[in-house]
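#dry-run=false #mode=assembly
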Amino acid sequence: MSDLPLIQADRAVPPPAATTTTGGRGRRLRLLSRTDRVVITLMVLLPLLLVLGLVWLPAAATVLLSGTNWDGIGPLNEIDWVGLKNYDDVVNNYPPFVPAVQNNLLWLAALFVVATPFGMFLAVLLDKELRGSRFYQTALYLPVVLSLALVGFIWQLIYSRDQGLLNGVFGGDTDWYGDPNVNIWAVLVAAGWRHVGYIMLLYLAGLKGVDPSLREAAAVDGSSETSTFFRVVFPVMRPINIIVLVVTVIESLRAFDLVWVINKGRNGLELISALVTQNVVGEASRIGFGSALATIMLAVSLVFITIYLWTVMREGKR
Amino acid sequence: MSRPRSQAEYLARLVPPSVAGLNRRSLLAGAAGAGALLGTGALAGCGDSDSGSGGDAKSVSLGSNQSDPKPKDVVAKVMDGFKTSSGVTVNINTVDHNTFQENINNYLQGKPDDVFTWFAGYRMRFFAAKGLAGDLSDVWGKLDGYTDAFKKASTGDDGKQYFVPASYYPWAVFYRKSVWQQRGYQVPKTLDDLNTLGAQMKKDGLNPIAFADKDGWPAMGTFDILNLRINGYQFHVDLMAGKEAWTSDKVKKVFDTWAGLLPLHQPDSLGRTWQEAAQSLQQKKSGMYLLGLFVGQQFSGADLEDLDFFTFPEVDSTIGAKALDAPIDGYMMARKPKSKDAATKLLTYLGSKDAANVTVKNDPSTLVANSGADTAGYTALQKKAAELVGSATEIAQFLDRDTRPDFASTVIIPALQQFIKNPKDISGMLTSVENQKKSIFTS
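#status=ok
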């Protein structure tokens, strides 16, 4: 039963059309006027400069500053170089660091294992054009429209120990936001609530783009809905799947607003991004120390970025 | 230190020794000058004319951290008063209290408002020393109603004034008179009394001591008062300055005592804001609450009249119970205000007794700094608070105002929360604090 749709799916993928493009591109290049070339150069150059100035320069500065003890005040030439002392302090002399790394990993796992698949599942359901699907779509997407800070406040009303909805309705006295064993889970629910809507919308857009004839063909061949999804639709949606994967990783790495609104990322809600902010943005201004934390985060992100780029480039070579 | 006999003498003790020392010297030299400033107003007039270059600014901006509804309203009324008297409009930019504090560094280096709310103590001197605040010596020439002590508390390390004090408030243990009368509770004089009272309250179904530390700073008040009661004021100053070791037996004793009191505190404090804890006192679910006088903001009408307090009882009879936290709030000027003229006018008004009178009329949760203000409008609570502060032998500004901000926020807050979570591992927590302190204070 399972062989048939697989064959169908393979046939359904349009064959790569590589032969016609090269000649066309050459002709088009010759047709470019001087103005066109200037425009194109500018179009490449300006974004490049912006990216260099707004992304790579600050990133490089962060790495440099992580070797100093700058307090954020005064001219740059008064900065003292302290080498790797900040990194030593981060790892050996900063109690919130280890919990922060653990929480970031937990965040990634929770989004990856629970929230993302659930969002995909909702998208598949909504794609069925149920009655009132627009209503569900709006309801589920609503938290994405709200800022995470607002999401934080909403959940505060639900989670407050003494005055919150949850304890009020169920008569419990769980300290949802104060108990370090509980609060990370409580926050993950709130974060997941938002993430699900996000993924749902992304995926729904992808699903709408899947050629209906594929499904029809699968149905004609007697494939069940489940196997149609996993054997036909899911593989066809490879680009969207990769985007969803990347979005999930990015969301878990940059998770910040929610814990910041709740308690500034302390007491069980430590995240690396919150620690960076505590040190860099606060009245504290341990810019050097905070930069070391940020650099560590950059390094972790680079691992994921490298894997992603490697996958994409290998794809391109095929 | 003996008890002060006058308000002036008490206020003299608001000043940390470092500044007091510096100022005593500079004051000898500057006494005549200060007298001239006050007496003739000649220099003050001078200030007016040369700041006239700022143009005929009809508005001035104020960055305010008074984000709670009541204080926000008071600020608005004070600024209305300024507009009436000067014709200059004040654009108030209110920022959430904690956010304002945490962003102060960037705020001051960016484009700050002409005038902004801030605190006396290490925090003020720190930014003044970094050149991020405007010199207010001219304004001080026009102010009266301030004792020398307030002037010292407004003085930076260089001997110039950078701060106009507006209000101050003591920290004490608050309770509801009606509850205590009904149950026959007596104000505890010693730690043992407090423990006995707490046990009784527990029996009566109350949380003995309301407690909240979600935002990280309220627990500093508990640490401060225990440290002041157990080790005295000078140790507090030295510890905050990084001169004493957190691993010492003295600090350990503070936490041991605190650990003994923790069972009397409202449980699950780390998920609760001070407002929520204050409401548990207001709803008669808690018996006592150690907090600043601003706790009154959560009470109104008859409930507010029912509110009373006592100073934290003595722990060590050789130290006594005469020291307390009583932070001063006030205003500072940006280093380069858009209109120095208007900013100076505003600050002069804010330091005047007119502004203080507006505050007295509208805010029953704070004490005004200007002694010329008409304090007949004080509630019984405020009168008692003023008396309490007047009878104190030493006044601290509060943990995070008396030490480096980076140390207070990145080390002490997580450490205190760690202690509240797990009061058993005091030595481990203190060793970590001491190691981090060494790294921060030497950098």
